[in-house]
Amino acid sequence: MIPQTPGVHPAWLPDAALATLGAVDTVVLGDGPLVDTVRAEVAHAATLRGGEAAPGRLTLALLGAVPDDAPEPVLAAIDAAAGAGLGEPRGTGPGEPREAAADEASSTLGDEGFVVVRSGTPQDPTTTVLAETGHGLLHGWFHLVREGALALGGPGAQGARGPEGTSTSTASGTSSHERAGLSVEVHRPTHDLRVLDHWDNISVHPVMGQVERGYSGGSLFYDDGSLRPDLGKVRQYARLLAASGVNRVALNNVNVGRREAELLTTHLDDVVALAGAFRPYGVRVHLSVSFASPVVLGGLATADPADPGVQAWWAQAASAVYAAVPDFGGFVVKADSEGQPGPFSYGRDHADGANMLARALAPHGGTVHWRAFVYDHHQDWRDRSTDRARAAYDHFTPLDGRFDDNVVLQVKLGPVDFQVREPLSPVVLAMPQTRVAVEVQVTQEYTGQQKHVAYLAPQWTDALQARPWGDDGPAVSDVTSGTSRGPATAAARTEAAASGDADSGAGAPRSAGGGLAAVSNVGDDVFWTGHPFAQANLYAFGRLAWDPTLTAEEILDEWVALTFGDAPAELRSTVHDLLSGSLDVYEQYTAPLGVGFMVSPTRHHYGPDVDGYEYTAWGTYHFADRDGVGVDRSCATGTGFAGLFPLDLAQTYESLDTCPDELLLFLHHVPYSHVLHSGKTVVQHIYDTHFAGVERVEEMLTAWEKVAPLADPDLAARVTERLAEQHRSAVEWRDQINTYFFRKSGVPDERGRKIY
Where is this region: Disordered (predicted)? Predict the structure, then answer.
């Protein structure tokens, strides 16, 4: 049975997305739990056929399960795969040559890869999906679902559906080959670890609620202090995640309370149940654990990672978890951060703490995701030398090379805290001997809290596809995938020169990358994500974690085509247009030019409060005065943060002549009269963008009102309500920001618009 919950929006797997494949005669070859899931998917799609079978044949097969008497197109597919470098072609005799080919292919495909071979004609197409594992076969099935009718178009038909059902370019993470009337595509995930972190509390927290930074109702997993008795929606969620590319889920908040800590021990049965709900779709579960667990749960006097009793306690706890959940993924740890316990309490560093946990997990194949979000949250606002943006760099880069192989250092995308505009965290680029994961925030803590439309994929693609060492250097995604570690940063070169170390950071990569991680935006809401359009961000994370070379527009094309596939073209086109560019709109009417953190502390970061954090201990300042605004992070006169990047990029950030406008106030304190590369002064840019942002929201409202009657009534009502709130909030942002800077600077708007 396919998990479907009545009354819950199907997201990107509505029945309409499966109907095309359901009309084709399909055979599944192989055995195993995930192959059974593929069979269930195929059987469900077949129930949607609604008439005679469409022309064509579809086979999904494990490489070792293809019999010698299989149809010739399937046997030819194995030959074609061999021609693409996956093993040797079958011989004339039965059995052995083809089995050898399958073995060699599997070593190339890995646990989750698959091959798609197409042959025949548009009138009589044959598509064969080959994989070594059921996991790969499941990914192959969902790949065909994304393609829709193009999945059976014969050779050359590969590519995902655009908003009008047209083909988009094949992802560059896919290798394609043409061989004698057949096309062969080899698909493998770029990142082995594609993790969604749920910040769910088992009981409702008195301040942070059921889900910390959650804007989609309550927890999907827990209710009223206990595991939900019906996990049907969790199984449906697992299906959605598998279809997007996510393969790991952390089940609880990184700020671990006592009840959540007990998931490791007395409430391990809850983990067993949740793992069982995710397992049919190949999604493995992780736990956020408290570093103080030996004290809190075990009654020990210490949690010192060097203490043999502490080490033994963690080893026993890990063994118990794996005895109950053999495919358990590992631990997520927030330590010495915002009040969470950690190794600093015992005079140890973060490598000591992470490695102690890693060694408890290593016999079982588990991984520690150790978060690098460590900074002084008791900062004196008078002290301009302390810089939260460089805190993680200063804490962690001296530890490079000391982390065990099963430790992943999980680094936030930006150096402060998921702002709409920040530079990439330099930690990602400065730890060549450490597995590094980039962590993004799918939940919209600082980007409108799922009341505003803000499609986040452009932010993520800009970061992952960036080449910080120059056009000929590796991309950021090469670092997170483990295929490259990159040359040295400017700071590392300086340190190497001072120490006489000739090895400035270049060299062979680690054997495995850290992958991607994200904070989930999902709750028990009927639309999963509060705002129906916020589903696009969840989908985009999974797709980019699988293939970071995809463009934001390609992913948006896929999501619209799947989610609204049977809707009128006018509705699909409008939804696409509303999302495309929506992050730019949000940036226009909120904090300007990368300065960030002008949000309300009392409303949990929702809405404007320009000075709300200016005199607090959190280190999130803009330093606006009568003369100018921005944080001086230059090497010449500021905190030196600009120099923590690769040399050319560091020089770009250091100079006002070359610093990008969009990051100017993150990196420099400038007068209001400073002229941007655009030709506008800073203060006039602030006025213009904030008026323009509200105008664009008004255009979004008008466009939606025209097509809302074409949408599902419940979805239309939810979107209409959220867009109205977005407009109200955007007006408030505009008026507060413009008024603040007019009063600070005394400079009027050159166009004479209303400023209070």
Answer: 85-109, 153-182, 466-513
